[in-house]
What does this fold into?
Amino acid sequence: MTHTPLTASAETQPTETNVDARIQRQRTLKEGVISYNEGHISTKCTVRDLSPGGAKLRLPNDIAWPNRFRLHIASDGITAECEIRWRDGLTFGIEFIGELRMDAGQSRQMNVTVPVARPSLLRRK
It folds into this structure.
């Protein structure tokens, strides 16, 4: 799979930072809604993985989308401002900008478990 990074950083090189992000990521299959223009433009998406710092999203069709938007995951009561970090066809890697907001009446926190690191992921190449 080839990702198109949207920043000048070397996304493809294994660094301590992006190895840590991969370790914290939890695979999911949740419905989300992404929106922009004060919510006037929106579409459903699938949240494929989730971490405290971002997520991987899959859109149902190939539409133009701005680099910054809002993501809402109703099942978790989460809303977050996001920025796209990479794209691969219909799949986006996003970073959460600022803090995650919980919907009114939601008292639970985002359910993201941190798996034990495999030594093969921690080796520098």
Notes: Residues 16-24 form the longest helix (9 residues). The longest strand covers residues 91-102.
